[in-house]
From TrEMBL:
Keywords: Coiled coil, Metal-binding, Nucleus, Zinc, Zinc-finger. Residues 20-65 form the RING-type domain. GO terms for cellular component: transcription factor TFIIK complex. It comes from the Eukaryota. This is RNA polymerase II transcription factor B subunit 3. It comes from Cudoniella acicularis. NCBIfam families: cdk7 (TIGR00570). Residues 127-205 form a coiled coil. One of its GO terms (biological process) is nucleotide-excision repair.
Length: 367
C-alpha cells in the first residue's frame, strides 16, 4: 500500500481547459500561465499568444475554423469557469445598455412586464438562437439603438446618478457608523474614568469622615447609578436624532401607499338605480298574484316576485317629472330632443298639444 493517497480528479474538469489551443502551453508545466478570452468569439488562449499576435494591430483569431477579427483591447480574463455563462453575461450587459428603460416610464405593471418579456426573448435569441435568429436579433438591437439614442442616453445618465447617489448614501451610512463607534468608545472611557474618580472620592471620604461607612457607601452607589443612567439616556437621544439630522434624503421616490381593496364588479358602472319617487316593499297584497304566491308551478327557475314588483312600480312611476309642453316650448331649432322624451314630443305635436301630463305627488296604489 502506498504512503500517499491517490489524487481524485474532478469529473467535471476538462484537461484541455489548461492547454492553450495556439501554442499548446500547459498550465501544469507553467502554473503562472494566464488565459484570456475575447467577446467576439470566446476562444481562450494564453496571454503570451495574445501579446505576440495582436500587439501590432487587429488580426484574425488563430483558432481553426474561426477567422474573426480580434483586437488586443477586447481580451480579458474570464470571470466564470463556464464560457457559456460568460458569453450570456456579456450579451445581457450589451442588451441592458440599449434596453435600459425603467418601470417608472410605463403606465401599468402589465406594460412593464411585457417590456421585460420582450427583452428576455431578444437575449434568448442572441444566446441560444439559430444563425438567422441571431442576425435578426442583432438587427433589432441596432435599429432600436438608432431610433432611441436620446432616450437611451438620458436613462444611462439617470442610472449613473442613481448609482452615485447610492454610493454617497452608503458612504454616509458608513461614516455615521464609524462616528457612532468612536462616540461609544469615548463614552466608555469617560464612564470608566468617572467611575474611578467616584471610587477614589468614596475611599477618601471613608478615610476622613466620622460617619457610618455603610451609609457613605450606599450614597456613593446611588450617585454612580444616577450618573450612569443619565449618561445612557443622553446616548439614546443622540442615537435617535443622528439619523434625522443627517440631512441625507433621496429625492424622486414614490410614496408608499396602502394597496387599494378591489371592489366587486359593478355592471352598471356605479350608477345608482335606487328609486327616488317610491319605496319598494318586499310584499304586496294583490288578488292577481294570490294563486302564484302559493303555487310552486308558477315559480319557474330564475323567476322572482320581487323582480315583478320592481318592474311594475318602475313602469307606474316612469312618467312623473316629464312635462311635454314645457319641453316643446324650450326646444330650440336644430337641437334634437332628449332620448327620454323624443317620442312623447312627437305624439304631443301630432295631437295638436292637447295632451297634458302633470306631476302628481299622491298616486293610487297600483295594486
Amino acid at each position: 500500500m502506498s504512503r500517499h493517497a491517490p489524487k481524485i480528479l474532478d469529473p467535471s474538469s476538462n484537461p484541455l481547459d489548461d492547454i492553450c489551443p495556439v501554442c499548446k502551453s500547459n498550465r501544469y508545466l507553467n502554473p503562472s500561465l494566464q488565459f484570456l478570452i475575447n467577446p467576439e468569439c470566446y476562444h481562450k488562449m494564453c496571454s503570451t499568444c495574445v501579446d505576440r499576435i495582436f500587439t501590432s494591430g487587429p488580426a484574425s483569431c488563430p483558432v481553426p475554423h474561426c477567422g474573426k477579427t480580434l483586437r488586443k483591447k477586447g481580451f480579458h480574463k474570464a470571470f466564470f469557469g463556464d464560457l457559456k455563462v460568460e458569453r450570456e453575461v456579456d450579451i445581457r450587459k450589451r442588451v441592458g445598455e440599449v434596453f435600459n428603460r425603467r418601470q417608472e416610464e410605463f403606465e401599468t405593471l402589465q406594460d412593464w412586464n411585457n417590456y421585460l418579456e420582450e427583452v428576455e426573448c431578444l437575449v434568448f435569441d442572441l444566446v441560444e438562437g439559430t444563425t438567422k435568429e441571431k442576425m435578426k436579433a442583432e438587427e433589432k438591437l441596432k435599429s432600436y439603438r438608432a431610433m432611441n439614442m436620446q432616450e437611451i442616453e438620458e436613462n444611462r445618465r439617470a442610472m449613473m446618478e442613481d448609482a452615485d447617489l447610492e454610493k454617497r448614501r452608503s458612504q454616509a451610512e458608513k461614516e455615521q457608523a464609524r462616528q457612532r463607534r468612536l462616540q461609544v468608545v469615548k463614552e466608555e472611557q469617560e464612564a470608566k474614568a468617572d467611575l474611578e474618580k467616584d471610587k477614589k472620592k468614596t475611599l477618601d471620604l471613608l478615610a476622613t469622615a466620622d460617619g457610618n461607612a455603610a451609609a457613605i457607601t450606599r450614597q456613593a452607589q446611588k450617585v454612580i447609578l444616577k450618573k450612569s443612567s443619565a449618561r445612557r439616556n443622553l446616548g439614546d437621544k443622540v442615537g435617535n436624532g443622528s439619523a434625522q439630522d443627517s440631512g441625507l434624503t433621496i429625492r424622486g421616490l414614490k410614496k408608499k401607499l396602502a394597496p387599494v381593496v378591489e371592489k366587486p364588479y359593478d355592471p352598471f358602472g356605479g350608477i345608482d338605480l335606487t328609486p327616488t319617487r317610491y319605496v319598494l316593499q318586499d310584499h304586496y297584497e294583490n288578488e292577481w298574484l294570490a294563486s302564484a304566491k302559493n303555487d310552486s308551478r308558477h315559480m319557474a327557475g330564475g323567476y322572482s316576485l320581487q323582480e315583478y314588483y320592481s318592474r311594475t312600480m318602475f313602469e307606474a312611476f316612469s312618467g312623473l317629472g316629464v312635462f311635454i309642453k314645457d319641453e316643446v316650448s324650450q326646444k330650440q331649432p336644430g337641437v334634437p330632443a332628449s332620448v327620454g322624451s323624443a317620442t312623447a314630443v312627437e305624439a304631443f305635436e301630432a295631437f295638436g298639444g292637447n295632451i297634458k301630463l302633470e306631476n302628481k305627488t299622491e298616486t293610487d296604489d297600483v295594486f
